[in-house]
Amino acid sequence: MKYSRASAPAKVILFGEHFVVNGSRAIATALDLPTVATAIEKASWPLEIESTPLGLRCVTGPELTCSSRELEPLLSIIRALRSRDYDVPPARLTVESDIPPSAGLGSSASASAAAAAALTALAGQDIDPEELFEVTMEGERVAHGNPSGVDPATVVYGGTIVFRRGQGVLERLQGGLSVPLVVADSGLRRSTAAPVLNVLKFLDRVGPLRVSLLGLVEQLIDLAWSAIRGNQLEDIGALMNINHGLLSAIGVSTPELEELVYAARRAGALGAKLTGAGWGGSIIAITRPGEAERVAAALTSRSSWVRVLDGGAPGTRVIKVDP
Ligand code: PMV
């Protein structure tokens, strides 16, 4: 039987989450933690979809319906491919990954991008990154309601990017930071849509401060991008701390995230912040060279999922098509 396999990375937002939904830029990096999607050709319908991270399975005919809402993003990327004249044949599609779901690490964008790449490869069709981004966005619209696009852009293009909603990738580095990141999941699951909506209302409520906050983030992004390019780890850390303060100020931190952030700083991290939508999910910390494992160890009493991961991973790619 013909089959294809594709992989897409996880992601973390280094700077600018939430503010990027409202018009300022964000910086994100692809993590060396992949989703692998395998599509196996079937002679006839139904199409079978299985997600191991979600522990869900669905069998559907050409009408593309699943009882589980969490699989809806994968159905919507299939619809998006079809509406762009890609021929999606009946297949068994399996999505496997160690990315914790709903944890701010881009699990849904990564699953959608890997699945779309595997399905188009199975049909013997090439999909360019621009179109793969658009298709992955369809999955994100279903998953999050009002996505800026920074997650799909990071997992599709890989590396480290500066992104602006509506304009896409403005700048890109092939790799990541010179040190790995410490990533710790608080274990609190939440939807992205709810905190995003809350921040939207919050920024409306603060009137003219909205413009000042977005302007401040724009300045932060300029400084952070130049610190990343210059490998100035202490500056990156300081700017992460400022970014975390802003995220706390707009109401997306939690006591659990604060504890992780402070534990990382106490253990010697140069900087630490929540990453992604907040109200749960994960934090990231940056350390001096050789110190990431020690900082990670200091977080294990507060998090059951702590990893030391390289940023700047490659974007979505087809690994294998057989025969
Ligand atoms: O879904 P998450 O936790 O990776 O958050 C995405 C980042 C936000 O800025 C909060 C939303 C967006 O679409 O940019």
Question: How would you describe this protein?
Answer:
- The chain is of the alpha+beta class and 323 residues long.
- 38% of the residues lie in helices and 26% in strands.
- Strands 1, 2, 3, 4, 5, 6, 7 and 12 form an 8-stranded mixed β-sheet that branches.
- The longest helix has 21 residues, at 209-229.
- The mean pLDDT is 96.
| Distance N to C terminus | 8 Å
What would the principal axes of the Cα set say about the shape? Answer: globular
Structural class: alpha+beta
Helix content: 25-40%
Listing every helix as H and every strand as E from the N terminus to the C terminus, the arrangement reads EEEEHEHHHEEEHHHHEEHEE
Q: Which segments are poorly predicted (pLDDT under 50) over 5 or more consecutive residues?
A: none
Oligomer: single chain
Question: How much strand content do the residues show?
Answer: 25-35%
Gyration radius, rounded: 19 Å
Mean of residue pLDDT values: 96
**How would a textbook summarize the main sheet?**
8 strands, mixed
Tell me the number of helical segments per DSSP (H or I, 4 or more residues long): 9
* Number of DSSP E strands: 12
Ligands in the model, by name, code or SMILES, are: (3R)-3-hydroxy-3-methyl-5-(phosphonooxy)pentanoic acid
Notable features of this structure?
single chain, alpha+beta, binds (3R)-3-hydroxy-3-methyl-5-(phosphonooxy)pentanoic acid, 26% strand, globular, eight-stranded mixed sheet, 323 residues, four-stranded antiparallel sheet, 9 helices, 38% helix
